Amino acid sequence: MQRDLRILIVDDHPMTVNGYINVLRNENIEGHNLIFTKALDCQQAYELITTQHFDIAYLDLSLPPYEEKNITSGLDLGVLIRKTIPDCVVIILTMHSEATLVDRLIKEINPDGILCKGDIDIDEFVNAFKIIFEGERYMSSKIVKSLRDKDFDKYNLDNYDSQVLMR
Questions:
Q1: Helix (H) or strand (E) holding 126
Q2: Residues pairing with 32 in the sheet
Q3: Residue (of 15, 12, 10) closest to 46 by Cα position
Q4: Distance (Å, rounded) from C-alpha 76 to C-alpha 59?
Q5: What pLDDT score was predicted for residue 113?
Q6: Coil, strand or helix: which one is 63?
Q7: Which tens digits make up the pLDDT trace of 20-39?
Q8: What is d(CA 91, CA 98) in angstroms, rounded to the nearest whole number?
Q9: Alpha-carbon distances of 7 from 13, 17, 76, 143, rounded to whole Å
Q10: pTM higher than the cut 0.85
Q11: How many angstroms separate the CA atoms of 77 and 42, rounded?
Q12: Going by C-beta distance under 8 Å and a sequence separation of 6 or more, which residues neighbour residue 127?
């Protein structure tokens, strides 16, 4: 018997959302029936998160806000999901890889995955899904590099020392 796997995808670009759905729909996750729900802004996402259960949530960070509820980004939605659906797998999709942002995401949401949109292709998107679905954390290479660079910054290394250590 197949188990429903409810996936929420939140991004303000409809074509992007549909692309994610089409890529994941082609994946055969044994024993699971993938059910997709999409939201294009923070208000739609808020209403879905507070009324439905999701197993996986893909969240873009830059979204039109829901000012009445003070939900201004995918980060706020991630915090909301952690409070209302604690067993939901949260995957962040972003164009940004700055260490301070990544550090904040980890501290406030502790996502199961962080994917830098400019860093992944279809194969890596699918691979990340499979890795996360198996219960492991996944961060795309720009995110890992950003965290690594942040760790080196606290030692006040000069450029030469940083290059030697990064090899």
A1: helix 122-133
A2: 3
A3: 10
A4: 10
A5: 97
A6: coil
A7: 999 999 887 778 899 999 99
A8: 17
A9: 17, 12, 18, 23
A10: yes
A11: 7
A12: none
